[in-house]
Amino acid sequence: MTASPDHQEATTRLQRMVRFDTTNPPGNELALVQHLAAQLQAEGLEAHVLEAAPQRASLAVRLRGDGSQRPLLMMSHLDVVPAEPARWSHPPFAGEIADGILYGRGAIDSKLTAAVHLQVLLMAHRSRLPLKRDLVLIAAADEEVGGTYGMEWLARQHPEWFDAEYGINEAGGFAVLVDGQPIYTCQVAEKGGADVDLVARGRPGHSSVPHDENPIVHLGQSLTALCGKLPHRVTPAVRAFFESAAKVVRPEVASLLLDLLDPQRSAAALAALPAAAPVKGMFDAMLRDTCAPTMLAAGIKRNVIPSAATVSLSGRLLPGVSEAEFIAEVTELLGEAQQHVDVQLSSFRAGVAFDHETPLLAAMASALQRHEPGAVLAPYMQTGGTDARYLTHLDISVYGFVPMRFEPGCDFFDLCHGHDERVSLDNIAFAVDVTFDAVRLLNE
Asked: What percentage of the chain reaches a pLDDT higher than 70?
């Protein structure tokens, strides 16, 4: 792809954004927000620096349309997760480019989104693009640690920025390969979250005299039970994804994709599906609640049998699943092991789903096909969560869409929060072009 001035500007901006270390905690997004606000103000735009706490800031800017239709919100976040520099081939906060690839923490999640949105906003402003809708850009703080100083605070303290019909967010747009066919994702739903502890009780004693009331052993039995899978469920967004994908692959592969929707055929279909293991894992997680063990705590000394042992579980809930339903699923999966453990829920957040049959999705699909003829855009459910969860009380549909072509060795989920997070310059350009055309088409 030949780089245009807009592509080069977006790349340079992303490089500079990566060089601001906004690792959260502590975040410290203020300096980056001020840097971006100065660029917008130099273009004649009124950029707002919204501070929730010292050094915790978000960027907000509005490009006025004629007001005949409700605004379009472009949302992202500027904080990033920690990096382990020794495990990277390029320093995580240097923004280095090598062989057409930009390396850095945030190069995918989610400074890329902010850089693309800023470029699209500037392109619309400079070209005097006729707008029926205001374009509102929010680049928020604190997404990675709960939104307390970011989107949750913004939606509560500055609701005027969120009076929009649609939102474009992170966590979708990337292509996955099924039988060699790229399927572009548009996130229209996301899972909720539940923090669950399994606490096993037992009898303390000297390790030299083992007994059958060791809570660590009980916990091990519980973890073995959790290797089973929570029940198969199909939500509307997930059904739409597999049905859309089935339309563009070979008939025998289409049958496998549709069989994923059948609880009796799903496991065999997944095993036979011609797709990479990470893609199959994602598909399986889209079809059920999940509850993964992530932390263990037990014992005070090597030669002392403890009286209690705890495993922390990270639960991810499909939209529509209640707190009671989820706990019932986990408890049933434990089977006989549950007699030795207490199931303790410390937090619960419901899943989110938006209408996936809207003019915005149609505009995104048309824009995508303009730059990649024959491409299919499928509604998709993210197995994690985003800042969209803070906007569910509003009359807005939020879609995750940062379009990126599939590139070998650059799996989206491996790069998010992983070592050597990176994005190709070609995909930066692709994301800018497709997103701008989607915005243009939505305003026609």
From this structure: 100
Range of 428's domain? 5-171+386-442
Residues 223-239: what's their mean pLDDT?
92
91: exposed, middle or buried (C-beta count within 10 Å: 0-12, 13-18, 19+)? Answer: middle
DSSP H helical ranges for 287-322? none
What's the predicted TM-score (pTM) here?
Answer: 0.92
Residue with the two structure tokens 């100065």:
38
- Chain centroid to CA 439: 21
Phi, psi torsion values for 182, nearest 5 degrees: -75, 130
- Residue after which a domain boundary falls, among 324, 349, 374: 349
371 falls within a domain? no
Q: How confident is the model at residue 336 (pLDDT cuts 50, 70, 90)?
A: confident
Longest CA–CA separation in the chain, Å:
80
**Considering the chain, what is the average pLDDT of its residues?**
95
Does the structure show a pLDDT above 80 at 79? yes
Please tell me what DSSP assigns to residue 5: H
Overall number of domains in the chain: 2
Which CATH number goes with the domain that contains 282? 3.30.70.360
Handedness of CA 317, 320, 321, 324 (dihedral sign): positive
Q: Kindly state whether residue 182 falls inside one of the protein's structural domains.
A: no
329/391 same-domain check: no
**Angle CA 327–282–80, to nearest 5:** 90
Break the chain down into helix, strand, coil percent, rounded to 5.
40, 25, 35
Q: How confident is the model at residue 1 (pLDDT cuts 50, 70, 90)?
A: low
Q: Which of 192, 225, 189, 144 is nearest to 347 (CA)?
A: 192
Residues 213 and 138 in one domain: no
Confidence (pLDDT) at 50: 98
Of the residues 334, 349, 364, which one is the last residue of a structural domain?
349
For residue 52, with 0-12 CB atoms within 10 Å meaning exposed, 13-18 middle and 19 or more buried, which class applies?
buried
pLDDT in tens, 187-222: 999 999 999 999 999 999 999 999 999 999 999 999
* Residue 182 vs residues 46, 116, 173, 285, 416: alpha-carbon distances, Å: 40, 22, 11, 20, 20
